[in-house]
């Protein structure tokens, strides 16, 4: 039991750091807790912790965000949550997990490998409404399953080369809205029944501490190191999700 509590505390702190600006880090939380419990149970247990750290993160980044991205991605994310709610009883979780991992690996291949093969850097990509609606919807679907919406979200947003703090704020606010939309869906599916609320309260304190730590690191890290760290987190997460998805399907 003590090992499970330790895993949960670490996961909560990581969740907070992601809301403070280290975007992809938070998506490692569910795979970490899933070492000790079912992934959907882990996602439901951590959702209230996400919501608390979301509130702190939104306040910290209340003046730093990309409004055009939010106006496009948040409604699309809501559509994704609705789709995932309808598909969850029918399709295996492993299928969503595998797809999420492959999306992240595909983006990193295009962002890291192809430019080096061509010996040129990937130019900033202009926003496209169709692409934003698609990736926003996929973000909502994958975030619903295991809070792992970073790969599709970053596939759309990272190529825009937003300023560091604007990227962090856009990420935090977008996922705060999507997480809020997941509450009635999780409740309707019975995933919120029997949660240990005193434990969640304690984990929320760790998450709040992590939020301020993430904000501090985001401010002091140079832009190129910050983006490299985000991509390393994304790579590790995508490999983990791909392996986990394949293992669940085979």
UniProtKB/TrEMBL annotation:
* Top-level division of the source organism's lineage: Bacteria
Provide the transmembrane region boundaries. Answer: 39-61, 70-87, 93-109, 166-189, 195-213, 225-243
Q: Where in the cell is it found?
A: Cell membrane
Task: State any GO CC term.
Answer: plasma membrane
The main location class comes to membrane
Q: Does the keyword Transmembrane apply?
A: yes
Q: Per UniProt, which keywords does this protein have? A: Cell membrane, Membrane, Transmembrane, Transmembrane helix, Transport
Which membrane topology term applies here?
Multi-pass membrane protein
Which protein family is it in?
A: Belongs to the 4-toluene sulfonate uptake permease (TSUP) (TC 2.A.102) family.
Name-wise, this protein is Probable membrane transporter protein
Instruction: Give the source species.
Output: Aquimixticola soesokkakensis
């Amino acid at each position: 039991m003590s090992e499970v509590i330790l895993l949960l505390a670490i996961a909560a702190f990581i969740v907070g750091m992601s809301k403070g600006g280290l975007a992809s880090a938070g998506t490692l939380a569910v795979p970490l807790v899933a070492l000790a419990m079912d992934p959907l149970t882990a996602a439901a247990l951590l959702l209230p912790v996400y919501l608390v750290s979301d509130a702190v993160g939104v306040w910290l980044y209340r003046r730093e965000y990309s409004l055009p991205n939010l106006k496009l991605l948040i409604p699309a994310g809501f559509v994704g949550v609705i789709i995932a709610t309808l598909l969850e009883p029918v399709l295996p979780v492993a299928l969503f997990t595998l797809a999420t991992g492959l999306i992240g690996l595909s983006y990193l291949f295009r962002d890291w490998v192809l430019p080096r093969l061509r010996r040129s850097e990937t130019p900033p990509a202009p926003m496209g409404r169709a692409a934003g609606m698609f990736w926003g919807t996929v973000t909502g679907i994958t975030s619903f399953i295991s809070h792992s919406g970073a790969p599709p979200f970053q596939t759309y947003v990272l190529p825009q080369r937003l300023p560091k703090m604007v990227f962090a704020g856009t990420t935090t606010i977008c996922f705060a809205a999507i997480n809020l939309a997941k509450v009635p869906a999780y409740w309707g599916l019975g995933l919120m029944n029997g949660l240990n609320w005193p434990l969640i309260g304690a984990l929320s304190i760790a998450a709040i501490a992590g939020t301020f730590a993430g904000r501090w690191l985001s401010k002091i890290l140079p832009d190129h190191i910050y983006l490299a760290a985000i991509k390393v987190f994304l790579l590790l997460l995508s490999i983990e999700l791909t392996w986990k998805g394949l293992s669940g399907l085979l």
